[in-house]
Amino acid sequence: MAPPPEKGDTMISSVPDVHEREKLPYLPPQPEIREAGVFLERLAGDPAFLEGVILPLLDEVKDAGDWHVARRHDSPDGSYSLQIFVWPPGTRTRIHDHSSWGAYRCLVGSVLEERYKRLDDASTPEHAHLKKIWELRWSREDGASTVFPYDNGIHRVGNTSDDPAISVHLYGPRLGGEIDGRDYDPSRNYVCDRIES
To answer: Which residues are CB-neighbours of 3 under 8 A, at least 6 positions away?
Structure first.
């Protein structure tokens, strides 16, 4: 298994004003993956965002049966999507990728990320042979994890602890139109497109 990446590479110490979250004035109009960690670091350091948006979601996590997107803001031009996920204990995503770049940062508790590499050449429809290459636990102090589109970001995220977790995610523009990414089932060497509903 390959070693995981170093944590904390995206850390900076600038704090934005998030009182006008609808406009998100500190987010570049066409964000790129290299700016995503900086943006998430700013959110993580903003007391108004933590106290006004994140901490109230702890009650929602307690009542949730599964992980879900609790809050979402999509730019009108499709250049980014900011999403806040709540993770009750013992929940996790399917193994998946995205049709865009993405970055996330855990703000409450911790989440475990597993990364996978595709071993086949993608020439057979609905077939994918995966190998797990690393796993890493992310908490608030660890900075942001980033993924590139499709095969360069196959992963699974979940909360394996006994405590709730909350993470904030930033996704760039989709490369695949309505396709949000792909879901994988390594038990059957299966892959399929995921259309956002």
So the answer is: 134
